[in-house]
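Reviewers of the previous submission asked for a worked example of the structure-prediction workflow described in the proposal, so we include one complete record here. The input consisted solely of the amino acid sequence. No template or homolog information was supplied to the procedure at any stage.
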Amino acid sequence: MRTPAFTALLVGTVLAAGCGKTPAPAPAPEGAPPGPSGPGATASDQDRCQGYWKMVGGDKGDGMKSPSADRALWLHFSSTKLTYGESSADPGETHAVVWDTAANPKTLTLTPSGPDGKPQPPEKWIYQFDGDHLLVAFSGGGALPTEFKARTPQPSAPGVLVLKFEKSAEKPPAPAKRPLTSNR
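From that input alone, the workflow returned the following C-alpha cells.
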C-alpha cells in the first residue's frame, strides 16, 4: 500500500499531466547510453541525475520537513528512464524522462507507459540542483510551477509540492515496521 506522501506524489504527477498536451517523444531504446534528451539538454544535468536519490525533505505549503521514519521515497535515474517508489521493497513506477535545461526553471517531462506499453500523457516537473541535493516541484492541478515555492491547494490555484532528494549509493532501505497495537 502506498504511503500518503507517495500517494500525493502520484496524484500530483497524474493530475499535472492535463488533457490535450502533446505527448513527449518516444523513449530511448532500453540500454541506450545517456546523452542529451530534449531541447537544450546537456549531458551534465542528465549525467548528474543518474543513480539513486532518497527523499530528505518535503514541503506541501507548511515548510520543508524531514520525512517520517516509515517513509523512504526514492528516485532512480537510469539513462532516459526515471523510476520512483516508496521503499526498497517497492519495485517503483517507471517513466521515460526528458530534460529541458533551456527552460527557466529547468523541466523534466515524465512519460509513463500504459499496460499495453504505449506512452501515456506526460507529466511535467521543474527541477534544480541545490548543492548535492535535487529539488523537484510539481502541481496537482495541471499547471507547471514557475518557482520552488510550495503551497497548499486553494479554490483559485492548485497546490504545489516541493521535494528534496540527496544522492544515495543504493535504493533506500525498507522503512521500519510500526509495532502492532491491540485495542483490547
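Residues 83 and 94 are 4 Å apart (CA to CA). We consider this example representative of the routine output the project will generate in years two and three.
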